[in-house]
Amino acid sequence: MDYTPLNKIQDAFDIQTKALREQKLIDIKTRKSALNTLHATIEKYANEICSALSEDLGKSELLVKMTEIGVVLEEINHYIKNMDEWAKPQVVPNFPSPLDYKGRAPVQSFIQHEAFGIVYIIGPFNYPFNLVLSPLVGAIAAGNRAIIKPSEAVPHTAKIIEKIVSEAFAPQHVAVVQGGREENEALLKLPFNMIFFTGSPAVGKIVMKAASEHLAPVVLELGGKSPFIVFSDADLERAADQVVQGRFTNSGQTCIAPDYVLVDSSVKDAFLKKVIEKVQHDYPDVGSTGKVVTTTQVKRLLSLIERTKGTVVYGGGANPEARTLQATVVDGVDWSDSLMEQELFGPVLPILTFKNAEDVPTLVNSHHPNPLAAYYFTNDIENGKRMADLIASGDAVINGVMLQVVSPYLAFGGIGASGMGEYHGRSGYDVFTHKKSIVVAG
């Protein structure tokens, strides 16, 4: 894949800067038209999107349509349906002030949503279509212009994204830059009005530092070690089904995937038996989970498995050159294990245990605080809610997995090391706008 020359990056930014100066506001009608065009263009190239993601990540057509294409199309539909309402000024009560002219209180007070201007959106490799286009939908709906950089680790998908964007938008509105670290560094030096980044906490810190040079707001969608907590009263069949689905979909490369299991020791053996049966059925072969993004990542995961103090009870096979790693379950893991050092981001599931349910919040908060997600399995819903209150996380689900990312009515985002800022639906519209207070004096 050809990377964008550095001088062309500056040109792309200059074109949008000039357009912003000449036309600061993009009206709702134009935004809707742009989103409708994007929707139609995505549908037009659906087969090519599926082929690209199969080549890059080994994703099935069904998985692509469910987790990549379908998500973006639904997001577009939701914005088109609701953005008229969201864009309305929020009228608030007038408040008298000693500064009022001749004691006359304001006659009108309202809060207006104003687009930031030019947004830089940095996409990840794991859901490379969804996680660069979904934020773009919010940015466009809110009235911004945007430059997006797809992940260089998925070149076929990056190319089809560029093809779609180039056909759907004028460069004054949305542009695509292809590249890696050097191109990203060049982009981060530019005075964007906002930056939206999805990726690792380490790179998130670099993005935030660069944004601070221009005092630009950031949204950081990061990750962390999301716990999957199974209490003694849980429906073990359901819990096993959900952890296998959540952990091994997309070869474990999902930011909100359960990263480890923390299960009550009294039900661990019964739960583990069900997990192994489910994995054997759903992911029997080395290539069943799809592709890991690079050979280097496969070797990293194999190294962690080799160093574990736990016992591999299922899986462990790999073909690094084919970028495949078998769904792997490791029992007898403790908090100091190699598999608990950092987010795994691969098809490996460590199993840890606890004896006292009241110790669970302290265990999670002290070892891997502020995960992007936390999952609780219990028949006592009030206990699940209580645990969700005691464990800080971006989002939480009781008796389910990854449901929080599906609904356009829910805000999605991290906390602490797992990120800052929320998007999807109304939250996505809000995060891409400045709230300007306007007062009409009496």
TrEMBL record:
<dbReference type="InterPro" id="IPR016161">
    <property type="entry name" value="Ald_DH/histidinol_DH"/>
</dbReference>
<dbReference type="InterPro" id="IPR016160">
    <property type="entry name" value="Ald_DH_CS_CYS"/>
</dbReference>
<keyword id="KW-0560">Oxidoreductase</keyword>
<dbReference type="Pfam" id="PF00171">
    <property type="entry name" value="Aldedh"/>
</dbReference>
<dbReference type="InterPro" id="IPR016163">
    <property type="entry name" value="Ald_DH_C"/>
</dbReference>
<dbReference type="InterPro" id="IPR029510">
    <property type="entry name" value="Ald_DH_CS_GLU"/>
</dbReference>
<feature type="domain" description="Aldehyde dehydrogenase">
    <location>
        <begin position="8"/>
        <end position="438"/>
    </location>
</feature>
<dbReference type="InterPro" id="IPR016162">
    <property type="entry name" value="Ald_DH_N"/>
</dbReference>
<dbReference type="InterPro" id="IPR054920">
    <property type="entry name" value="BenzalDHMdlD"/>
</dbReference>
<dbReference type="GO" id="GO:0004029">
    <property type="term" value="F:aldehyde dehydrogenase (NAD+) activity"/>
</dbReference>
<feature type="active site">
    <location>
        <position position="221"/>
    </location>
</feature>
<feature type="active site">
    <location>
        <position position="255"/>
    </location>
</feature>
<comment type="similarity">
    <text>Belongs to the aldehyde dehydrogenase family.</text>
</comment>
<dbReference type="GO" id="GO:0006081">
    <property type="term" value="P:aldehyde metabolic process"/>
</dbReference>
<protein>
    <recommendedName>
        <fullName>Aldehyde dehydrogenase</fullName>
    </recommendedName>
</protein>
<dbReference type="InterPro" id="IPR012394">
    <property type="entry name" value="Aldehyde_DH_NAD(P)"/>
</dbReference>
<dbReference type="InterPro" id="IPR015590">
    <property type="entry name" value="Aldehyde_DH_dom"/>
</dbReference>
<dbReference type="GO" id="GO:0005737">
    <property type="term" value="C:cytoplasm"/>
</dbReference>
